[in-house]
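Long-time lurker. I teach an intro course on protein structure, and each term I like to show students one example going from raw sequence to a predicted 3D structure in token notation. This year I'd like something fresh instead of my usual example. Would anyone be willing to generate the tokens for the chain below so I can use it in lecture? Attribution to the forum is fine with me.
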Amino acid sequence: MAEGKTWKVRVTFAIILIGVALMFTAVVTDHWAVLSPKVEEYNATCEAAHFGLWRICTKRIFMKENETDKEKGCGPISLPGERNCSYFTHFVSGESSEIFEVSTQREYSISAAAIAIFSVGFSIIGTICVLLSFRKKMDYLLRPAAMFYTFSGLCIIISVEVMRQSVKRMIDSDYTVWIEYYYSWSFSCACASFVLLFICGIALLLISLPRMPQNPWETCMDAEPEH
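-- Reply from a regular --
Happy to contribute to a lecture. Here you go:
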């Protein structure tokens, strides 16, 4: 690999690794969305929830009149309270998360998790290809690596959209008490990883392409070898 090309690949790869780290963070954490019920009165407990791809956590929060605003629902979720987390029943038998199971279509949760796993797999394969490309005469692996990273970004944003639809259906459902919601930092990590993986994946593909002819009488085959 030419020296000028090597530093471009390394800079792009470093940014891609940040995207991969954000994607992994989003997949393994459970702060994609925070749900809140309507609060009728102060000096009483309410139950807020946050969830991710694999489990849901509920927290019982005591709403003090001078410290909270019931118009904004139960919370904020950062307030102290009794916390209980459980994995979704379609992933771990024996666990209980009936509220989630009744209020959303089970297929949404499974689809979002499965697509996220594809994103993880594509990013791992892409990273292996990039590392191997630094070996002599193996820079041709940069092109499939770029495609894998682009596919990884597309998968994670599809997972984000599936999760967004899941939250919307949960809020609109008549079977739950949730009326307020907002997307949390895990959701932001997923969106940021899509931007980095998709853009840098395309950039890596452009970097890996052969040098374009600089004169009208040149062809791509006349370009100087890169190694």
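Some talking points for your students: The chain is about 50% helix and 15% strand. The helical segments are 3-28, 98-103, 106-133, 142-172, 185-208.
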